[in-house]
UniProtKB/TrEMBL annotation:
This is Threonine synthase. InterPro entries: Ser/Thr_deHydtase_PyrdxlP-BS, Thr_synth_N, Thr_synth_N_sf, Thr_synthase-like, Threonine_Synthase, TrpB-like_PALP, TrpB-like_PALP_sf. It comes from Lacihabitans lacunae. Its cofactor is pyridoxal 5'-phosphate. It comes from the Bacteria.
Length: 435
């Protein structure tokens, strides 16, 4: 299968090319020429399938011209090493827990899959690759864990000094091996600008293989459809319509849900639940797309996005037709005050601890359910609450117990190099350290 650019001004490419290029030259986003429909036999039998089996079938539907069954199986075995359990809160309310991977956020699905598939293509051609990534928190951890120990790949992660949580920093700075962390004396935007400049530096590009691992890479998007189908498979037997509420920032997660729907997964509707960076909910209401710049800081900070990068992909899926958009996605947004009340309510009503992002998805579903009844609601939990401990403590009034995996991490010693937000200093570092 070939991929096109949503701006339609770049040539078609193969999956391999799209994965290593990241962005097409016209600055659009790569999308598969067609989204494969899974067979009715698949949908008939899906109830008994493991998430790994579902992942295999979906990957095969996209990559069957590019990868053999054996290679696809290898990639799934390597990448999907954890489950996505559905926590049942009551007869019609479920939380899809996407935080059981190595960095305890849903970004593990995309990052691990991308790492495995890149590593396969590199082994085949015996090339070396350097991944450069700027992170404001969760992306870096998932990328670090996903690429850890992958042959022929070196990863450099830039993060803003003092602006990521302690657990997030430890996730970036304690692996060692092929993962290096750079602590930048500046903001997340500075980190992103440094990485962008490196990708435009012809001198660096002539010396090293460089690639990005950010969320617009198509190899991160496809594996996020696995868990929607998995959730559907576990709820199908109840015989009711299913509504998915997705806490959204760059809208990769929700776009993956739309892809699953295109593959013929039955869904009543998606709920795009955001914080006050409500660009997409406002677009659904008014038909006008108005980015927010700079984005507004909130306690659901992984969703502080003022110009969602996957918006063009959603437009492409809906053929640029606002009515199609509106019939598939309902929008809603919540303030920090409402988010905190949501966290408290989940704890009090259901004895369930959820991170701020997850609480927003819950609130989206609750709002929808007051006007619509009779369906099963699934809200996606995008991270473990312990990754946002200081805010959780403030809201709950006590310190919840955190998983041993995370408390052990706090005890490890951090290893990172500190640089100023200066391109000269960054480039010097890269010239010395890239492979
Ligand atoms: C990245 C992230 C989101 C937003 O996901 P998108 O795919 O960018 O919409 C939500 N919650 C958490 C915890 C995240 O890390």
């Amino acid at each position: 299968m070939k991929l096109f650019s949503t701006k339609k001004a770049s040539p078609l490419v193969t999956f391999e090319e799209a994965i290593f290029q990241g962005l097409p030259p016209d600055n659009g986003l790569y999308m598969p020429e067609s989204i494969p429909v899974l067979s009715s036999e698949f949908w008939d039998k899906v109830e008994g399938m493991s998430i790994q089996k579902i992942a295999f079938e979906i990957t095969k539907a996209f990559f069957k011209d590019d990868l053999s069954d054996d290679v696809i199986q290898q990639i799934i075995d390597e990448a999907i090493t954890f489950d996505a359990p559905l926590a049942k809160l009551n007869e019609s309310l479920f939380c899809l827990e996407l935080f059981h991977g190595s960095s305890m956020a849903f970004k593990d699905f995309g990052a691990r899959f991308m790492a495995s598939i890149m590593s396969y293509f590199l082994r085949k051609s015996d090339q070396k690759l350097n991944i450069l990534v700027a992170t404001s928190g969760d992306t870096g951890g998932a990328v670090a864990q996903g690429f850890y120990n992958k042959a022929n790949i070196s990863v450099t992660i830039l993060y803003p000094k003092g602006k990521v949580s302690e657990i997030q920093e430890k996730q970036l700075t304690t692996l060692g091996g092929n993962i290096s962390a750079l602590e930048v004396d500046g903001t997340f935007d500075d980190c992103q600008a440094l990485v962008k400049q490196a990708f435009l530096d012809l001198d660096l590009k002539s010396k090293f293989g460089l690639a990005s691992a950010n969320s617009i890479n198509i190899a991160r998007l496809i594996p996020q459809s696995f868990y929607y189908v998995y959730a559907y498979s576990r709820l199908k037997g109840l015989g009711k319509d299913i509504v998915f509420s997705v806490p959204s920032g760059n809208f990769g997660n929700l776009t993956a849900g739309l892809i699953a729907q295109k593959m013929r997964m039955p869904v009543k509707t998606f709920i795009a639940a955001t914080n006050v960076n409500k660009v997409v909910p406002s677009f659904i209401e008014s038909g006008e797309y108005l980015p927010i710049s700079p984005s507004i800081s909130t306690i659901s900070n992984a969703m502080d996005v003022g110009n969602p990068s996957n918006f063009p992909r959603m437009e492409s899926i809906f053929n640029n037709d606002i009515n199609q958009f509106r019939s598939s996605i309902k929008g809603c947004y919540f303030t920090d005050g409402e988010t905190k009340d949501g966290i408290k309510e989940l704890k009090e009503k259901f004895d369930y601890l959820a991170c701020p992002h997850t609480a927003i998805a819950y609130l989206g579903l609750k709002k929808y359910s007051t006007e619509n009844s009779g369906s099963i609601g699934v809200f996606l939990s995008t991270a473990h609450f312990a990754k946002f401990l200081p805010d959780m403590e403030k809201v709950l009034g006590y310190t919840p117990q955190i998983p041993k995996r995370l408390s052990d991490l706090i005890g490890l010693e951090k290893s990172s190099s500190e640089i100023k937000a200066s391109y000269d200093e960054f480039k010097e570092y890269l010239l010395q350290n890239l492979i």
